[in-house]
Amino acid sequence: MGAGGAERAIPVQVGRYLVRSTLGAGGMGVVLRAHDPALGRDVAVKLLRPGSDASPKALARFQREARALGRLRHPGIVRVLDADEHEGHPFFVMELIEGESLEDRLQRAGHLPLADALRMGEDLARALHHAHGEGVLHRDVKPGNVLLCADGTALLADFGLAKDLAAASRFSLTAEGATLGTLGFMPPEQFEDARSADVRSDVFSLGATVYAALSGRPPFPATAVRDYYMAMVHGRWPRPTSLRPELPAGVDAVCEGCLAARGVDRYATARDLAEDWPGCDGASRPWPDRDRPARRAARSSRWARSWQRPSATPPPRAGRRAWRP
Fold this sequence. Notes:
Elements: H1 3-7, E1 13-14, E2 17-25, E3 29-36, E4 41-48, H2 56-70, E5 80-86, E6 89-95, E7 99-101, H3 102-109, H4 114-133, E8 136-137, E9 146-149, E10 154-156, E11 163-164, H5 165-168, H6 188-192, H7 199-215, H8 225-233, H9 240-243, H10 249-259, H11 270-276, H12 292-299, H13 301-305
Antiparallel strand pairs: 1-2, 2-3, 3-4, 4-6, 5-6, 7-9, 8-11, 9-10
C-alpha cells in the first residue's frame, strides 16, 4: 500500500472506541461500527476521513452537524452520544441502529405496505418538527437517510447538509446560488439556492421520500437535471394512485400538499403533515376532502414565510383563531 493508501487507512481505534467494521463512507467522512469498552456496547462513529484534505468549510460543516445533532432529543432522530478528536481529526459517536436504510429496503422489496409507509411518514414528520423547533433544517431528507429498525420504527439520520439557523444568522457556509441536496428529493428553491431553504423545503423532501416508499420510485426523474427541474416547477409527477391503483385517494392529496412547486402552497409545518398522514388511508379516521392540505398551508403561511428568523416559535395548531389570515 502506498503512502496515500496508508494515510487513508481506517484506524483500529478512535478515541476509546474499538473499530470493528466500516458502515459507510463519503467524500470526506466515514462511519464506523465500533465498540465502547467503557459501557460495553456497540456504537456508530462518524470520523472526518483520515488523509482527506478537508477544507475549513468541510471541517466547519462536520462540526456543525455534530453540534446540531447534539441538541436534538427525539425518538425519531439518531442520537449523538459523544464527540472528540482522533489524531487531529474530529469525530462524533451516535447510537448504533440495527436495521437497514429505506433505500436498501425499497431496492429489495419495491415499496412499503401502505400502513408502514404512512406510519413512517408520520414519525419522520414529527422528528422534523422537533428539529425545526430547535432551529435545524435537514436539507437532505431521502430514503438513504432514513433508517428502519427491526421493530418498524423509522429514524432520521445524516444531518451533514443541515442548516443551523442560529449559526446561519451570524455567517453562512453556503455560497449564493449553491445547490445542496439530492436529485429526486430536493425542492425547486433548494435547487436554485440552498440558502433559501426553510421548513417547507424539508416538507417537500419528506413528501418525496414517502412517495418513493409508496410507489417504489421518486416523484421526479433524476436523470437529466433540466428535466428534473422542469418536472418540479410544473408539477409533472404521476400521482401514487396511478402507479398503485389500490392506494386511497387521500395519499394523492397529502403528496400534493408536500410536492407543490411553491413553498407557500405546501404544508407550512411538519407537524401539520404528521397529523394528516394517518388519516389519508380512509380507515384510521375519516379524510375530509382533497383540499385539506391546501387549507392547512394557507392558514399558517404567514408563520412559514417568517420562520427563518431564529427567534421564531412554532405556531399553534392550524385552524386556531390567532393564525387565521
